[in-house]
Amino acid sequence: MHSAEIIIDVPFFDVDAMQVVWHGHYVKYLEVARCELLRSFNYDYTDMSASGYMWPIVDMQIKYVGSALFAHKIKVKATLKEWQNRLKIDYLITDLASGKKLTKASTIQVAIDINSKEMCFESPAVLFEKLGLPQP
After folding, report:
1. Torsion sign over Cα 125, 109, 5, 52
2. 2: closest CA among 96, 74, 110, 83?
């Protein structure tokens, strides 16, 4: 199973007057972790495009459990859970110092052929090659 972790120092411009991260910024944190995960198996957005596919997000679920605070360090872990017909990535955001769970999330991406603009109902062979897996 592929996973990647990043550490983010919560910046001042991401927080509200109570020094709590505004809920919309979590999406940005997920994106940074997702890019790190995709790079880990050499299939980031540039590679996707070069292979003839785009992979838009078609679903996102976020559950806020705790609050990230200004000047705290948070760890964002992204784990690839499904790849046969879509990319499903699960995320866990924790406070680095305490290990306290702050947010759980998941995203789903599907392959779209760049030329035809049609959605693929199975992940393309290039994804399996990048993951080092046989295509089903």
Report:
1. positive
2. 83
Q: How far apart are CA 118 and CA 98, in angstroms?
A: 45
pLDDT tens digit sequence for 25-45:
999 999 999 999 999 999 999
Instruction: Calculate the CA dihedral of residues 115, 118, 121, 125 and round it to 10 degrees.
Output: 0
Which pLDDT belongs to residue 53? 98
Cα separation of 83 and 120, whole Å?
A: 12
Would the pLDDT of 109 be above 90? yes
Note whether 133 and 1 are within 8 A (CB). no
Percent of the chain predicted with pLDDT > 70: 100
- DSSP line for 56-124: -EEEEEEEE-S--BTT-EEEEEEEEEE-SSSEEEEEEEEETTT--EEEEEEEEE--EETTT-PBPSS--
